[in-house]
Structures are given as structure tokens and as C-alpha cells.
Amino acid sequence: MCGITAAVGADDAVSRLLTGLENLEYRGYDSAGVAVANGNGVEVIKREGQVDELVDLLSSASVGGHVGLGHTRWSTHGPPTNANAHPHTDCSGELAVVHNGIIENHAELRDRLRGAGHTFTSDTDTEVVPHLVEEYLADGAGVEAAFRRAVADLSGSYAIALVHEDEDAVYATRQGSPLVFGVDEGTDPQSASPGATYYLASDVPAFLEFTDDVVYLEDGDVVRVAPDGYDITDPEGTAVERPVESVEWSPDDVEKGTFDHYMRKEIDEQPTAIAQAVRGRAEDGRVAFESLSDGAFADVERVQFVACGTSYHAALYGAQLLRDRGIPARVFLASEYATTAPPADDGTILVGVTQSGETADTLAALRRGRSEGLRTMAVTNVVGSTAARECDETVFIRAGPEIGVAATKTFSSQVVTLTLLAERIRRDVVGSHSETAPELLDALSELPSAVGSTLADSSAESVAERYGDSDAYFFIGRGTAHPVALEGALKLKEISYEHAEGFPAGELKHGPLALVTPNTPVFAVATGAHTEKLLGSIEEVSARGAPVIAVAPRSEQAVAEAADDVLWVPDSHPELVGLLANVQLQLLSYHTATLLDRPVDKPRNLAKSVTVE
After folding, report:
1. CB neighbours of 519 closer than 8 A, spacing ≥ 6?
2. Dist CA 128 CA 76 (whole Å)
3. pTM value?
4. Is residue 271 within 8 Å of residue 451, measured between CB atoms?
5. b/e 115-144 (16+ beta carbons within 10 angstroms → b)
6. Which phi and psi (to 5°) does residue 608 adopt?
7. Local structure of 211: helix, strand or coil
8. pLDDT tens digits, residue range 100-128?
9. 498, HSE (Cβ side, Cα atoms, 13 Å)
10. Which of 259, 275, 361, 383 could form a disulfide with 265 if both were Cys (CB 3.0 to 4.6 A apart)?
């Protein structure tokens, strides 16, 4: 959700903080602010609105220093206002705090602190933190001890960073919310000290143009960062070692380049992302994962998936592939699984599909499953993420950084990875790959080229123009086309704000057909399977006057002839056609949103990584 950044050691911390906030704005853009400790106290500048507005405000202010914090907010407690923007301070203004997550016992703490004479100026849960630290400082504790005692009072999920006017340092900790630490050991020409320049952030892209050396902090870690070095300790103050790792992403990966929007850039990056997901994993007619030993799934009897949003749709796709291979598989919304998990059975593996590896609901579901004795696996994009560290096994989708809030290339990479995983599980359980595996693996090797052709030849923009004034949009499909229909509707809702719904094609006649009118276009996703039944659904909506837009390979001529318009995709293996159809629906959503002049990369009320339950 919210984006935290901190810089320690650069002569101009504010410019580093603003770079970090601009790179993290996909995590929240309701308000933004910075706090700088400069030897003359702690100076806080913040305001409602996007980071650009903070930049304008700072351009007319004289704020300097080499230790500071920044924050871009996604509102949970209190509306987006200047008062609710982070950083938050104590009564004296001697310290400032930024926070990502939810402090569940904030009301109780606020009442306690008010009773002790503290004055609050915001509606946020965060503001209890600086006042708690202030209270313990008044008791005679030093800054570090006061910070630790304050954190010990908190319940919930959080990543917190603090600066105090008396210390040339940043204190930070995490519990259930992401926080990473960037290390530039003396290579920065703007370093305020010969030691290093350091960064803290909610995600690596915040500081990637300054350093690619990262320390992944774990829950409970407390880090003190000063220009002359850093210390990482556990909640009791005992030193802990965390390795410095180099990330493979480059600064160019998190820039838009010549594209108008990150989303369009990431749609166009799908051929590369898919190729990376497949590379080295499908050779000589066999599927192998670098992170999994031979026979890793030999004792698996059933697969349960937990996921949210786009990742949930990818999991639905993967589960269908497993069932088609004779492996029982079910998909659960992670938020429901965490509270009402089914009975745990021997032979069940619980697979969490999460782009960021930090999705709070998915982590809660994985932890619930593990507490019931289930083996857990993460399918994620982020090395060092909480899901990757906590699960028994991890498979990375290798999509590279995705900045646009609406997931695009990560969906494709997730589905490709799950396709390979379905074949691998089948081989371990049954003793052989599926009968169609040779054709499927050949098609996977050709999929990047097929996606490229889809992008080059798409008529999605003209379709978006033709149906741009519709009342609502419906998406239907069967088999693997069903999750694609759901994903197509989600994308359109997310970035255009138009009403859209996805259905299994056969369910139209069981209620949703009542909503079909001549002004509700129906997008029918055809994969080459279940064609006759899909044609029946098309006839049902056509009889009610609804225009039908088929999303289909050229081999599906019967579907094309029954439709009013067609978004063509190349012919491919039937289990992969859905991915090509999804690219067309991504473009449809993108063009619809741009025609409506929507903020494509920053859809209202949404953030990229949902780190609160």
C-alpha cells in the first residue's frame, strides 16, 4: 500500500527522497511528504495530492540535509488531507515517523496518550507512533530504546521509519509489511561521508538507480542507519546478520522510456517476460525448475491455491490445467481461506500466487495453511519477499519489475509458470508428462512471438472507440477462457471505471442474462475448446440484441461468423490461446481508459501492493 523511502548519507537527501517517492507512487498517491533532520531540528513538508504537487511545494522551500524520510500514502485511516499526510510528528516536533500498514490497537493507544496529555492532529492510526516514542523519551529512554518500546506496544502490520533531531540516523522496523534496505558502499559521488549512502524503502525500485545492493529485512528486525554504518538487531537488541544481495533489475526496467504509461510499456514487455519465465525450464521435452528437486511433488495428492485479484485469476487458470491432467486442484480467495480454511489433509500442497510476495491476505492464508501442517509454495515475482522467505518452496515468475497498478505482464508470467508447474506436478505424481506435453512445450517456446504478433496486429483501439459509450461490458468464456474473462473484466474496471463483469459462459442464462441489452457488448473468449457450447451462449446474447465481440484464433471461424466484431489472436495450443486473448483484452482496457482520459497508471482508490488485510 503506502510507500516509504529514506536516505542517509547523501548531501542532498531531499532529491533522493523525491526520486524514491516518484518510483514508489504506484503504492499510493493520496498524499506525500518528507522529513529531514539537518542539525537544526526535523523539518517536515507534506501535502495532499500526488508527488508532483509535493515537488512543486519543495521547489519554493529551502529544505536540506543528508538524513531524511519520505512517504506516499494510500489512505486507510482518515481521508487524504494535508493533516493526514505522512510524516507525522510528536507534540514537540522533535521527531517524525512514516508508516505503512495498519496499527490495529491505535484507538486504545490514542486514548492512553490523550490521557497523558498528548495532542493529536490527524485521523491516522500512524500518529500514535511518534507520541509513543515521545512518551518513552520523557521517561528518560534514549531514542533507540524509546523506538523499541513504542514498537513493542503496537499490534497489527507495519513498516516504520523514524528520524529524531538529536541523532544523525534513521531507525526502522517491519512486521508484516515490506521494508528493504539499499547499500551503496562508498561509490556515490554525492556521499556525505566516505562510508556509504544508504536507503530504506517499501520496494527496490525506490533506490534502484542509486544501488542494486539490497538487504531484505525480516519481521522483527530493527535497523539503525547512520552515515558511518548500520546495525540490524532483533526486538531484544541482539545483532543479526542479513546478507547483502544484488538484484538483477536495471534502472531502465523501472522507467517508462518512450511510452505514455507504465501499463502500456509492461503490456509490450510480455514477450520478454514470457521468454524469461520459460527459459531453462522446458528442455528436451521435460519440465524442470531450478529451485525444485527431482520428485518434489511425488507425494502430492491435491493442490490448493490461494491468491487475490489478478493472481487469483492466474491461479484459476493453473488449477484448470492441473485438473485437466488428473490432479485435484481448487482455488480459494486468500482473504476467505485465512479465516475459513478447509480441513487440512495429508498430501495437500498449498500454493500462494502473489506478484509482490507481500500481499497481506495471501500471506495470512499461507500462514494459516502452514499452521495446519500443510506444505507451502510461493509463486511470486520478487526475490527476498516475505512469501519467498516463509514458504517451503518458491518458484519465481521472472517478470521483472512491474510499476503499473493494473497487473499485465505478471499475469502472463504467472500463467506460463503455472502451466509448467502443472506439467511438472503431473510428471512427479503420475510418472510422465501429459500426452500433449510435447505440443504444449513447443507452443510455449513460440508464445513470445505469438504475443508479439498479437500486439502488432491488434484492432483493440478501434473496438474500444466503437463501444466506448456502452452501459456495461460483459466477458464470457469456458475452461481456461473463464479466468481470462474474469481478468478482462477486472482490467476494464480497474483503469476505465466502467462497469464490467466476467462470467463462465454457461452461467449467463442463470441470472446475468437479465442485464443484457443492445448497449451491453459481450466479449466472448474462444480457445478452440468447448466451441459449440460457447456458440450457444453467443446466440443467447445476440437474440437479446447485444453486440458480440469474439476474441479468437483464426481457426475459430464459426465463432467469428457469429460475432459482430473480432479481436484475432494467432493459433496456438488450446491451453495457451487464453493468454493471447488476454493480451487483446489488456489493450482493449488500455485504449478504453485512454479515450476516457483516465489516469491509467494511478487508478483511483487502488494501489499496486496490498499489504493490509
Report:
1. 469, 470, 471, 472
2. 15
3. 0.81
4. yes
5. eeebeeebebbbbbbbbbbbbbbeeebebb
6. -70, -50
7. coil
8. 988 999 999 999 999 999 999 998 999 99
9. 29
10. 259
Please state, in angstroms and as integers, the Cα–Cα distance from residue 362 to each residue in 306, 311, 333, 379, 483, following that order.
6, 10, 8, 11, 19
| Backbone angles phi and psi of 562, in degrees to 5 | -80, -10
Decide: 504 and 457 in contact? Cβ < 8 Å: no
How many whole angstroms separate alpha carbon 135 and alpha carbon 131?
6
Report the phi/psi class of residue 479: left, alpha or beta, with left for phi > 0 and alpha for psi in -120 to 50. left
Query: Read out DSSP for 112-168?
Result: HHHHTT----SS-STTHHHHHHHHHHHTT--HHHHHHHHHHT--EEEEEEEEETT-S
- Cα dihedral: 494, 267, 488, 328 (round 10): -110
Count of residues in the chain: 613
Q: Please identify every residue annotated as catalytic.
A: 2, 608
* CA–CA distance, 410 with 383 (Å, rounded to integer): 14
- Given a contact cutoff of 8 angstroms between Cβ atoms, the answer to whether 239 and 231 are in contact is yes
Compute the distance between CA of residue 520 and CA of residue 547 in angstroms, rounded to an integer. Answer: 7
In the 3-class helix/strand/coil scheme, how is 246-260 assigned residue by residue? ECCCCHHHHCCCCCC
Give CA–CA dist 491/473, Å, rounded: 12
Distance CA 486, CA 317 (A): 11
| Residue listed under C-alpha cell 526486538 | 235
Least confident interval from 44-53, 150-159, 300-309, 410-419: 44-53
Q: Among 47-51, 336-340, 372-376, 495-499, which is the least confidently predicted range? A: 47-51
